[in-house]
Amino acid sequence: MTTTIAMGLYTLLLPMVWLFIKFDHAITASGVIYSLLGALCMCIATLAFSYALYNGGTAGKITIMSSLYPALTLLLSMFFLKETINIKQGIGIVLALISFALMSIK
Questions:
Q1: What is d(CA 87, CA 71) in angstroms, rounded to the nearest whole number?
Q2: Are residues 48 and 16 in the same domain?
Q3: What's the CA gap between 36 and 91, in Å, rounded?
Q4: I need a surface site. Which of 4, 5, 13, 99 has the fewest CB within 10 A?
Q5: What is the pLDDT of residues 12-49, one digit of tens each?
């Protein structure tokens, strides 16, 4: 649990470091909001991962299941950004979903 708290604090405090580093990019309100939302999502994901481990999940299964995020990202980009999926990506998504289903069988 301490690791989760430390990662959450690190994720939330890291954008503040950028305030003290000189760079040529403008800080906008929407950029700050997106950064904070990203940090919040990272904290939630870390808490969910720790919760799954704490409640008896094996590290091997949980790690493999959490590594399926590229397939989820691709599906979300298809629906929200109207991107097209090529044949390789489609096969990859299908294989990832099949592996997820096979892992859930005892």
A1: 13
A2: yes
A3: 34
A4: 13
A5: 777 777 677 666 667 788 888 888 888 888 788 888 88
pLDDT in tens, 50-106: 888 888 777 777 777 777 878 888 888 888 888 898 999 889 888 888 887 887 776
Whether residues 47 and 95 fall in one domain:
no
Residue 69 CA to residue 51 CA, distance in Å, equals 18
Q: Phi first, then psi: give them for residue 77, nearest 5 degrees.
A: -65, -30
Any idea which residue has 């720790």 for tokens? 50
Contacts of 83 (CB under 8 A, 6+ apart): 77
3-state secondary structure of 13: helix
| 72 and 95 fall within a common domain | yes
